[in-house]
Amino acid sequence: MKSIFNSFFKKTAPTPAINPYLPDGLRVYCIGDIHGRYDLLCQLHDKITEDAETFLGQKVIIYLGDFIDRGLHSKDVIDCLSKQTNAGVEYIYLRGNHEQTLLDFLQEDSVGRSWLTYGGQATLASYGVSIAKIPTKREDFIELQAQLRKNLPEAHYKFLVATRLSHQLGNYFFVHAGINPQLPLHKQNSEDMLWIRDAFTETTKSFEKIIVHGHTVTEHAELLANRIGIDTGAYASSVLTCLVLEGATQALIQTKAS
User: Fold this and answer.
1) How far is Cα 99 from Cα 95, in angstroms, rounded to an integer?
2) Domain 18-96+163-254 part of CATH 3.60.21.10
3) pLDDT tens across 127-142, in order?
């Protein structure tokens, strides 16, 4: 009986937590879901610039996706992000489910119906695509698709297409929504990395790396042993969150709710 219990315990015991770690001389700023709040993005960029002034090492800014939808200034956000060039700073742009949906809509008009239910109308409006009435027919969505194709700058399209699904640094894995807890990092699929929620956020399982993500809105940033969630619902709360990582330290920079 004892040997059976020991065998079972070894199989089900949780793996040790991953220690926070980044290589020396590296500081990472990781920004959560922006959702068209260009005003908050500008405020946060100013705070990051001030914080990074005296740091002489390599600086990396990672954006966790969902730059668009819900807020009123998606076009301004994409314009800002797509033009960033600062000496000594590396920019990493990850794709969120909202960017993926916009790209899908450009290829398939049927996606438009669901896109409009979770914020797409705000993005269309920011690109000068007006909706006079609630679309009900396929012809309506085909027309919206055609207008967006016409109004979306080529540079913005290229920027969106070039966004990544994930990025790794030190003991951290950066992704928009999260990962499938049942799969190793190298076998994750795009659907989960863009859309997963409860199956990922509700597990206390330790992963190969600490997962840094957005997508799931919480009132306060969640700095947990296995994951760090920094989507603080900026489009509604006016709190846009940036996680600052250096060595084994973790800190936050945030905008303030008005």
Assistant:
1) 6
2) yes
3) 999 887 778 789 999 9
Which helix (DSSP H) or strand (DSSP E) does residue 5 occupy? helix 2-12
179: helix, strand or coil: coil
Residue found by looking up tokens 């740091």 in the block: 55
Mean pLDDT on 226-230? 97
Does this model's pTM top 0.85? My answer is yes
Domain ranges of the chain: 18-96+163-254
Give every CB contact of residue 240 below 8 A, 6+ residues apart in sequence.
31, 32, 34, 37, 40, 41, 43, 44, 232, 234, 254, 255
What is the rounded CA–CA span in Å between residue 180 and residue 182?
5
Q: Tell me how far apart the alpha carbons of residues 193 and 49 are, in angstroms, rounded to a whole number.
A: 29
